[in-house]
């Protein structure tokens, strides 16, 4: 993962020294090893210190494995950037996709899933994540753990290995902008060492009960809710009363994570429809997994309007639940607090909060004819428009934060089911538009952000002349645009666009035994642009389970990818809002 970049002043451009761009290394054409279009993180132009967290852990069984961390002696903080670098591999054979988590001091550093192996393919993959905002964790010795449960027996033979390090980049002496980092990181996990919390109903919550510092200026919550078990394909679920009839999961095709403070709704974390490498048809994800499948990106909820409320000196509870959770979601979060270094206490209040609980609309039109054939549609939608604002009287004046957000979710499914055939079509979309205004009484800084997560799935299980055929196609997207600027002046825009299109047909004989597959292919594209010269564009295609083509730079000037190392977009966003604007995952 890398961070969004905006420059504070165009005059800085001439003073910057750029390192070579960091482009992900792909396997050779014709390889069945893991290939993704995402870039690696551009490094700052300073010599880093590398601290190994663990080296070649072997994952067999379901016990957590532990490690110890000590801060780098040669690179004392604060740091310009801290990167988690992790490598995984799984031996050839048979194995499910597995969930992997790395924890430090109880806080989540990494959350993702693994690539499934094949009889003759032993996948390897590399993960990078910008963890600079977790810097307070790295200032002292910490205990760490890795959760990667992996059943190995006579049937499931794939053995997973992994190594991970933290890379610490000191500040470049030429960089005058040193954005504030969180002063406090509070993990929301199963226990003091980490671990996810299971959310299997509306009544289950991930919580932290604590008495916060009394001088909070800003607060953010990074949320990850991973769908598991019968909720793994939540986007294909239907209303309870037609679930058996449509041979599907219950609960409708709508889920969202909801954040509360002391029981009051304070934010929404929409859930991205991650599809794991065993999802629907494993052939769809060979050798290219879906968007963020191997490394989930947390959804950041801005709690700053409640900074004064949290600073009251009284105990508070921050909680997360997944609306409509069935069985189940694995959840964790990191609470990031920025303190007023010029005051021991702050005053203020919440001005406005119009956020309420979810009330999705559900409709269905399903019928069965005289021959028992089932057809029809089911839809679920949710539209949220709300405003949350509050102010903090800081040591350098009153600062008001106003958040206006629109979240539109829609899920429409069509079914045609007979005794011989099963056909299902999904069109789903999550659209989020947010405008955050920070007013310090002198000027207003404004960030407008839009996200769009489209997902289309076509699934057919049909009778053929000599057996059955399961044909699946998936079109998965992620678009994000961020505009940053001062009220009344021109804005600066950065954008990322990702798309994954995959198709495969599985063949079975009349007894239901798999006999092969045909028409297996995929295309993955990743494009990032910002207003200060950064451009990255890569498209990869696969065919019959191997990497077929790689095309770079098509959307960039002169057809060349350029990722300068200086985090100008990141720095400006951090100076304004106290947290990394994560646009490059």
Main sheet?
11 strands, antiparallel
What coarse outline follows from CA principal-axis ratios?
globular
Helix content: under 10%
Secondary structure tally, helices: 3
**What percent strand?**
over 45%
Please provide the count of β strands: 28
Low-confidence parts lasting 5 or more residues at pLDDT below 50? 1-21, 568-585
Main structural class: mainly beta
What radius of gyration results from the CA coordinates?
A: 24 Å
Rounded mean pLDDT is 91
What number of structural domains do the residues give?
Answer: 1
End-to-end C-alpha gap: 4 Å
Structure description:
There is one protein chain. It is built from 3 helices and 28 strands. The strands form 5 sheets. Strands 18, 19, 20, 21, 22, 23, 24, 25, 26, 27 and 28 form an 11-stranded antiparallel beta sheet that branches. Strands 9, 10, 12, 15 and 17 form a 5-stranded antiparallel beta sheet that branches. A 4-stranded antiparallel beta sheet has the order 1-8-3-6, with no helix packed on it. A hairpin with a 2-residue loop joins β27 and β28. The radius of gyration is 24 Å and the shape is globular. The N terminus and C terminus are likely disordered.
Walk me through the topology:
Blueprint lengths: L48 E11 L5 E5 L9 E12 L8 E6 L2 E7 L10 E7 L11 E6 L12 E11 L13 E5 L8 E3 L6 E5 L5 E12 L12 H4 L12 E6 L2 E7 L28 E4 L4 H4 L5 E8 L5 E11 L7 E7 L7 E8 L5 E21 L2 E21 L4 E18 L4 E21 L2 E20 L5 E18 L4 E16 L5 E9 L2 E7 L15 H10 L8
Antiparallel strand pairs: 1-8, 2-7, 3-6, 3-8, 4-5, 4-7, 9-17, 10-17, 11-16, 12-15, 12-17, 13-14, 13-16, 18-20, 19-20, 20-21, 21-22, 22-23, 23-24, 24-25, 25-26, 26-27, 27-28
